[in-house]
Write a structure and sequence with these properties.
The chain is mainly beta. It is 5% helix and 59% strand. A hairpin with a 3-residue loop joins strand 6 and strand 7. The protein is globular. The model has no long low-confidence stretch (mean pLDDT 94).
Length: 204
């Protein structure tokens, strides 16, 4: 069960925004990721709880940020409920998207589990609902993902396979690279793996 800490930066000016303390593991239903977010000074700012099924679809998502809360799942596309800080109103949403995304590294792992790309697979288009900080406002995004390289490196425990993905935002054409090892993000824009207490889990 990998557990560790990511540093989340502004991808443009590299300002440290938060630390995400996480643990994740494959389970009976597929894969689960839970984390707590803190400011650089250590104040609690939110949490992520994401469970995927064996096909990489979101069985359950719960996000907290700035007193806002989102709960969602794959249902008629994806469906979610967003609750305001006072708790007096809740808004429901539904759209024919494939899954969710956001600032947490969990969503990068989840997207790769959903797409199951191989180096020989052509770039694949995916529609996602992104919940943007700090108020978890939903917006629909279209991306293209391609697995451009996969390398296995020897380690003290067991060989470690690192996958390199190229992600393209289809509305702007902006491209970036994501490096994953199993269910851990090694590097991505705005994401730095600072600490890892145990090796990544490998998916079958």
């Amino acid at each position: 069960m990998p557990r560790g800490r990511y540093a989340l930066h502004d991808p443009h000016d590299h300002t440290l925004l938060a630390h995400e303390h996480f643990q994740c593991a494959p389970g009976p239903s597929g894969w689960r990721y839970v984390s707590q977010l803190t400011t650089p000074t250590g104040a609690h700012t939110g949490s992520v709880d994401l469970t995927l099924d064996d096909l990489g679809r979101p069985l359950r998502l719960e996000l907290h940020a700035s007193s806002w809360q989102v709960r969602g799942a794959a249902l008629d596309g994806v469906t979610w409920v967003r609750t305001d800080p006072t708790g007096t109103e809740a808004t429901e949403g539904n759209t024919p998207a494939h899954a969710f995304t956001g600032t947490s590294p969990a969503f990068l792992v989840a997207t790769t589990r959903l797409l199951r790309l191989t180096p020989s697979t052509a770039a694949t288009r995916v529609r996602l609902v992104a919940f943007t900080d700090p108020v978890l406002a939903p917006r629909t995004v279209d991306q293209s993902w391609a697995l451009v390289n996969s390398e296995t490196h020897p380690t003290d425990n067991a060989p470690l396979t690192v996958d390199e993905y190229q992600v393209t935002a289809l509305d702007t054409g902006e491209q970036h690279t994501v490096h994953l090892a199993g269910d851990v993000v090694l590097a991505a824009p705005g994401i730095e793996l600072e600490d890892l207490e145990s090796p990544p889990s490998t998916f079958t």
